[in-house]
Each structure stands twice: as structure tokens, then as C-alpha cells.
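ok so I'm stuck.
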Amino acid sequence: MMKKIILFFVFLFSVVESNAQCAMCKAVVENGNEDMAEGINSGITYLMVVPYILVALLGVVLVRYRRKQKINSSIR
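replied:
not stuck anymore, here's the structure
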């Protein structure tokens, strides 16, 4: 189980550089400089990461809740 958790975090925090952008972002970046392009890429990355963090937190809460329920039902 511990190996799965470690592997999950390795994949979660490993960085792969990507230059994918929506059409509007690409048009804005083509007219700007390199610093602006890097800023937009960073912003897209931050916006993309937040939902994954929220889903992971929800998963942790659900797992803890189910474990607690399982312990309480085994005591009775």
C-alpha cells in the first residue's frame, strides 16, 4: 500500500513541460513576449491542478469516513 502512495505522489509531482493552450490564449501569446507566454502557461497549470487537489481531498475524507464506519460496526 505504501508503494502505491509513494508512486502516486511521484506521478502527481513529476513535471512534464507542455505548451498546450486554448485558441484564445495562443492568439494572445503570439502577440506578446516570452515572459507573458510563460506566465499564461503557469496560470493554466495552476487552474488545472486545483480540481485534482479537491478530488484527492474528497477521496481522503471518504476513505477515512469509511474506515471509521468499519471500525465502529466491528466494535458493536
